[in-house]
Design brief:
It comes from Gymnodraco acuticeps (Antarctic dragonfish). By secondary structure, this protein is of the alpha/beta class. It has 6 helices and 7 strands, in the order H-E-H-E-H-E-H-E-H-E-H-E-E. The radius of gyration is 16 Å and the shape is globular.
Amino acid sequence: LAGWIITETDCEVVASALKSDPSHLRDLELSHIPLQDSGVERLISGLKSPNCRLEALRLRGCRLSEISCSALISALKSNIHLRDLDLSENALQDSDVELLRDLLESPDCRLETLSLRSCSLSEISCSALASALKSNIHLRDLDLRENALQDSGVELLRDLLESPDCRLETLRIRDDETIRAKIQKT
């Protein structure tokens, strides 16, 4: 569906597929579709369903508003199956990243891959992510490329990667810089 224009009715159809018993939809790609708040609201009803077994959600460049992003992240707290989340190319606010921190700190969160490439992240966002990664045992890959990260935020994340408390294995900061954990983690 990437690049298509979808209506609220289309979002309702996707939500119905997520709610079906059993839901066979495992991977949802809606990248570069300008989702309106009402469309996201309809998708959320499916994401919150106990029948939803979605493992990958890609909403790259969907022009998510602060309201949409907040509602989406809140809905994902109840989804224990999601492993891959791509919110790249959405102008996330610090408040959105704070909500992501809450999601990553949730004991039910099973995300293994999180892409926040080109999301206008700030130093506050780096601090929130670093805080979440101290307690998250599932996230293995974090993509933060194409964000104007300050050196202090980058250092905070690099230091965290070396901590035995952090399970992150790959941190992508710049196109030419990928940092992999250098120590064996138990």
